[in-house]
Each structure stands twice: as C-alpha cells, then as structure tokens.
Design goal:
mainly alpha, two-stranded antiparallel sheet, two-stranded antiparallel ribbon, 6% strand
Length: 266
C-alpha cells in the first residue's frame, strides 16, 4: 500500500442514508482508508462505488489529520476489504489492528515454514477463517501461509481427518500439497472452532496450537503432564503420553508448545 498524498476537499454530494447495509459497510471502510491516509487498491480507487465515496468523504472530514498506517492497520484494512468484496461479515468490536497483531506468528502452524510478507509466494502470511462457514470474528481467525490456506479451502475437522486416514497408508503421499502430518494439524486447528463430542475431542491429537489471542482461558493456569483426574487414573490414564486423554486436558482446551503444556483445568 502507498500513502495517499492528495485529498479532495470538495463535498461528494452523496447521501448514504438510502444505501443497503452492504453499501454502508463499504462506505465506512472507505472512510477508514482515508482516516489512515492509505490508498484504495485498483480498480476500487477509480470506480464509482461506496468505497470511493467513503474515501472522499473521509478525506474531506479528516483533512490533514490522520492516524498511523502501521502493518497491523494495513492488514486490518485489507481483511475488511477482502471480506466486503466477498460479502462476508467482520466483527469489528474485537477484530481490531491490535487483535491481528496478537495472532500474528513468524511460522505457519500448518506447514511450520517461516512466513514471508508481500513476496507473492506460497509462504506469504494471510489471515484465514478457520471455520469457513463463519465470519471474520475473534476466535475464528488464524495466521497461516497462503499455500496452507489454499490447500485447506473449506475443509473442516471431519474432512481433514478423512484425508489423514487416507494418506496414512501412503507415507510419501500428499493431498493438495500437504502431507498427512500437516493435514492432521489442519484437523486440530478446525477442532478448536467446531462443536465436538467428548469422545471426539479426546481423540484429537494436540499437534497444533490454538491461535494466540483467541477467546479461551488457557493462559490462566498450568498443569503437569502427569496430572490426571481420579476417574481417568482408574481407567488407566496415568502418565505421558496417555495424560493427553484425560478429561481435564481435552485437546480442544489444551495448547502445546516446544517446551510446555498449558490447560484451563479448574
């Protein structure tokens, strides 16, 4: 994105009160582009659309006053523009530039490759809706690579696990460019935002982390690997790695890293 150098001070002569809800969202988005003094991408900057009208209205109202167009702000504007063009909803109370900065990561949680920025490659970072039939809301967003995003598509937990089952018989096989291990990470990521039964949740391996900043209380307390409840201890779940199956350490509520496990026991 480039800095917007010229503002048009004249009135736009547009009355947005008669517009549809979709047009109103585009109008407000255009004003936010002007508020941060960021150019609309082509061809939307020239087309006679609510985006353009909002940009001109904001340029007139804000004048030389502007906010800093940081990288999280630019990603926030790009996300809203992408959602608006596809007719998707964005929850703007929690989905803010600060939230996008919180969920930003250096490596793709699916492929484990370092993420690039604006390199026009498969490793470019992008914000993905984990559950494809839901909108852009806090808890449903994760930063992954563009290659993983294209491969994942609209696959949910069940579809991803089916792919894993088929690929496990062929150690070197891939589906849509992802291996069985990577598809298992997609399945785990999808399990965080889909309703699962207790039996299904306990069977999900913890091979992927829940996105940082999502609505979960996993940061409240820590637990040890061998810490299981009495009912699971009687059932034979005693220590690592069986402790992952403890009902107090359901995969949907557990996040793993290279050195620690944390859960929201309580």
């Amino acid at each position: 994105m480039h800095t917007l150098n010229l503002f048009e001070p004249q009135a736009t002569g547009v009355d947005p009160r008669g517009w549809t809800a979709h047009e109103r969202v585009g109008y407000e988005l255009g004003r936010d582009y002007a508020r941060h003094q960021v150019d609309l991408p082509e061809p939307y900057a020239r087309a006679d659309s609510p985006l353009r009208q909002g940009l001109l209205s904001g340029a007139r109202d804000f004048g030389p006053r502007r906010l800093a167009a940081t990288r999280p702000v630019q990603r926030w504007l790009q996300l809203r523009l992408h959602a608006w063009l596809r007719g998707r909803s964005v929850e703007l109370i929690q989905v803010t530039p600060n939230y996008l900065q919180q969920i930003d990561v250096s490596h793709c949680p699916i492929t484990r490759e370092p993420l690039s920025s604006d390199a026009r490659m498969g490793t470019d970072a992008c914000v993905d809706r984990v559950r494809n039939d839901a909108g852009y809301a806090a808890g449903n967003l994760a930063v992954i690579s563009r290659r993983a995003n294209h491969a994942k598509g609209s696959c949910g937990h069940a579809q991803s696990m089916d792919i894993v089952t088929r690929l496990r018989t062929r150690a070197t096989a891939q589906h849509a460019g992802l291996s069985a291990v990577q598809w298992a990470r997609v399945a785990v990521l999808a399990s965080f935002v889909e309703p699962l039964t207790h039996a299904q949740a306990c069977a999900v391996p913890c091979s992927s982390c829940r996105p940082t900043g999502s609505d979960c209380s996993i940061r409240r307390r820590r637990c040890r690997l061998s810490s299981v409840c009495s009912c699971c201890a009687r059932a034979g779940v005693s220590d690592w790695p069986d402790s992952r199956r403890c009902c107090r350490m359901r995969p949907r509520r557990v996040i793993s890293s290279a050195f620690s496990w944390r859960c929201c026991r309580g």
